[in-house]
Every structure is written in structure tokens, then in C-alpha cells.
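Hi F.,

I've been meaning to write this up properly since the lab meeting, where we talked about keeping a consistent format for the predictions we share between groups. The idea is simple: the sequence comes first, exactly as it goes in, then the C-alpha cells exactly as they come out, then a line or two of notes. No screenshots and no reformatting. I'm using this chain as the first example so we have something concrete to point to.
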Amino acid sequence: MTGSSNSFQQNLMNLSLTNTRDTVLEDDFNDCLMKAMHGQALNTEKLAIRAGIPQERILRTLQGEHDTPTISALASILGLDSDKLVNLKSYQPRVTTPHALHMITSPFGHLGVNAYIVTSNGESIIFDTGTDSTELHRIAPNPKHLCITHNHPDHNQGMQEFESCTIFTPDSLNPGDSISIGSLGIEVIDSSGHFSPARTYLIHGDSSPIAIVGDAIFAGSIGKIPGNKYNSGLKTIRENILNLDPSTILCPGHGPLTTVAQELLHNPFF
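Output, unedited:
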């Protein structure tokens, strides 16, 4: 047992403890525009009429042409912060990762999908599984708990590999529930919108609060929200996540770590 514990601790020490290098965001400005269009059921034709901009120019912008006047005009129509959207290309969230927190990224899309390991008193807690759990098993071979943020396959694909764990899913937890694991207290928060039900896990007991947010919010963006839940989904993020302590480290399902304070300053959806 002692040898296994030492091996586990060494595996953790071999991981990077900081996230201060240049990072790539999950979404560019045009992705944010398209997510806002999707949530408000606006196509390019309708948007061109509302904005008074030729449809061809809108199409070029949605394809990635950084036309500042067009981006600003579309942001205004779509309820996005135009300054934050225009400057999104230069946004680099800076987070010093607590020793207890480790991000594992498996293949999915252009940046992959994130799962997380949190340690407490030699025990490990897994948050989401990603599309490939191999690295999770290598780093934390005997986890006791698995928490799932939402039931999209890229986040829960490996659940069957953790049957020996206590598994918490969004369907088994209500907002306001609490979980105690080792020295950590975990508060369950509703983050439904991108998917319903969805849960954020707010972890207390480390140097900074840590929130495992799934696809509710990314650094500089959000997960795509269906049109019938767009406004309520944004409200849920604003009230349940962005009202947390500004120092809270946000651990999204895709892209880099960020904090509440940085998203309030840079996320064009808020």
C-alpha cells in the first residue's frame, strides 16, 4: 500500500503545476458570434437585415476575417461585449495551478477534452473521463470517486471503467448538495444550459476555490446553448458561476484554465 501511494505521488509530481505558458482558447471571435447566433436563432440573412451589413461581409467575418467594425456591429446586435470580442484574439488567461489539481486532455475536436484529478490526503477524485481514460488510470490508478459534469459522450465515455468508484452524476445530485472527500468539501452547483442537467463541482479546502465547470463556460466563451435555453443558460452561468469568489479557478471541459475574475474582464458573453 505504501509503495502504491509513493508511486501515485511521484506521478503527480511529474505533471506540470503551472499554466502560465501561452495558451490557445477553445473559441475564436467568430465561434462566439456563431454560438450567439445559434442561441438566438439568427441566420446570416436575418443578421444582415438587423445590422445593416451586407451578408457577404458577415460570412467573411464568420469564416475568421477580423473586420473590427463588422465584429463590433454584430456583437451589439447579438448582445455580446464588442470590446471583449474584438480583443479576444489577444486574451491569455493566466492561472497558477494548485498542487492538488491536475488536468488530463484526451482527443476531441481541435483542442481535446479535459478531465481532472484532484487529490486530498493521498486519495484521488476524478472529474469527467474524457474520450480516453488511459492517462487517468496511469496517474491515479486507484481513484475512489468519479464526478461527471454532464452526460455528453466526450465527458462520460469512460464511466464503465470506474465501476469500482463511487460515481456521482448530474442525475444523482441536486444543486446545493455537498460531498466531503478527505479534507475537501465539494459543493454541487447547477450549471444547466449547454446540457441539462449539468453540475459544477465547487471544491473548497485548497489555497484557492476550484470549480469544475464542464462545458458551461470556457476561457473567453461558453459551451453552445440550445435556442430555447439560451437566455436562461447565460443567466445560470452569471448567477451560479461568475458570482463565485473572483479568485475561483475555473476548470472547463475544453481549453485552458481560467478564473472568475479573468472571465468577468474578458468573456464577451458577460
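Notes:
The chain has two domains: 29-90, 93-266.
Residues 93-266 form a domain with the Metallo-beta-lactamase; Chain A fold (CATH 3.60.15.10).

If this format works for you, I'll send the rest the same way.

G.
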